[in-house]
Design goal:
This protein is an alpha+beta fold and 135 residues long. The chain is built from three helices and seven strands, in the order H-E-E-H-E-E-E-E-E-H. It is globular.
Length: 135
């Protein structure tokens, strides 16, 4: 009986822990288009996008970036964002993010537009991919 309880408990805990590793409230599994612009600050998303990606490889990489992002605890006090990202989902809804790209082999930072009190760190290998993409 004890073994069954432990197995059942682990089956409940593991998905909850894994879900905590991605951006809260973000459903990045159905992205069909990603648009990027230079940010004008926290007040609005710049819709004058310099790049729009709809190819599967790039969209899949952005899905991975959003899923790999790790929430950071604490009070957010951060400079104005470098880029704005708009991810369009298959159902037509849009998710908007602010992005700060780190140096090569360093983490980057992302923030949901509707939650400027929380930041998420993007791993260094994803940062390297973003640097190459934004060149």
């Amino acid at each position: 009986m004890k073994k069954i309880f432990l197995v059942a408990l682990s089956l409940l805990v593991i998905p909850v822990v894994l879900m905590g590793c991605q951006i809260d409230g973000a459903d990045s599994s159905d992205i069909v288009k990603v648009s990027i612009s230079e940010s004008m600050g926290f007040d609005e998303i710049n819709t004058d996008f310099f790049a729009v990606y709809e190819d599967e490889e790039t969209v899949d990489m952005f899905e991975e970036i959003f899923e790999d992002a790790v929430k950071q605890d604490g009070i957010v006090d951060i400079a104005a964002p470098e880029y704005d990202i708009e991810a369009e989902l298959g159902n037509g809804s849009k998710q908007q993010y602010y992005l700060w790209v780190g140096e090569g082999d360093q983490s980057s930072t992302i923030m949901r537009v509707e939650d400027t009190n929380t930041i998420y760190l993007i791993p260094a290998d994803d940062t390297n991919w973003l640097i190459d993409l934004l060149k």
